[in-house]
Amino acid sequence: MNTSITVHGTARAGGTARTTGTARTTGTSRSQGTARTRGAARTRGAARDRGAGGPPALPARAAAHRRSTGGAGTVTDLRRRAGRSPRQLRFATGDLVVVSGLPGSGKSTLMRRAVPGARVDSQDMRDQWAGRMPRLLPYGIYRPLVRLAHYLRLRRLLRTGTGLVVHDCGTQAWVRRWLAREAARRHATLHLLLLDVAPETALAGQGARGRRVSRYAFLRHRRTVAQLVRGLTAGRLPAGCASAVLLDRPAADALRSIGFGTDGAGRPR
């Protein structure tokens, strides 16, 4: 049975969140299971997981708390699901989703497979520029131009107001702040998808794609991602994010669709 999660969060993000396993699966008239993970609305306290009739939810990893502003976000932990990971994640129309993780963890692979709509991946921009540059020209020479082009494209797509999935290495906190401001401007929500994979797995992924980051850069990424994972496991959302989903490699591999817009039952429109 296919499963889907509809992710909601509060418009004003930050503070302490509720950390849960996947919400239970609910059967639909077409035998599709639908699970929901709801963040609290505005000032109504902590989020609740709803639904029945499917596999039981994993035990919560942290208690629900009300943050100082009166709302709460939700952290959904899809790691170690033993084959019960959802195939689909759905977000509200106009929301923004940041995909973060170690270099080589599978962010670009996940986005190319699961995001049929608008996405902004710095790897796509790098590949475009690499195809136009002399083969022996080191990437470091034109890297500033690639980054500029990447952020200009991101800015252009943000102006459209459409739901957007954005690749982010996690070390550039200013990017999340920028996206949080944009989400607030359009009265939408910023969500975080964090891939939690072992450093050895990420290094193997870098080898498979034929590009490795420097040892210094990788250690910096490890510190940043480890801090994010610890915070989310404890129910602490990064500033600006109203919800987060923790994925390990099997959970990421199981995802087939990340999209926007659902009806009241959590099914794609």
Provide a quick synopsis of the model:
The protein has helices at 107-114, 122-132, 139-158, 173-185, 199-209, 215-233, 249-254, and strands at 4-7, 18-20, 26-27, 33-37, 49-50, 74-77, 88-91, 96-101, 119-120, 164-167, 190-195, 243-247, 257-260. With 269 residues, it is of the alpha/beta class. The chain folds into 2 domains: 4-116 and 170-260, Rossmann fold; 119-159, no CATH class.
Annotation keywords:
269 residues, alpha/beta, Rossmann fold, 2 domains, seven-stranded parallel β-sheet, six-stranded mixed β-sheet, 33% helix, disordered C terminus
Question: What coarse outline follows from CA principal-axis ratios?
Answer: globular
How many E strands? 13
What integer is the average pLDDT? 76
And the CATH topology of the largest domain?
Answer: Rossmann fold
Counted by DSSP, the helix tally is: 7
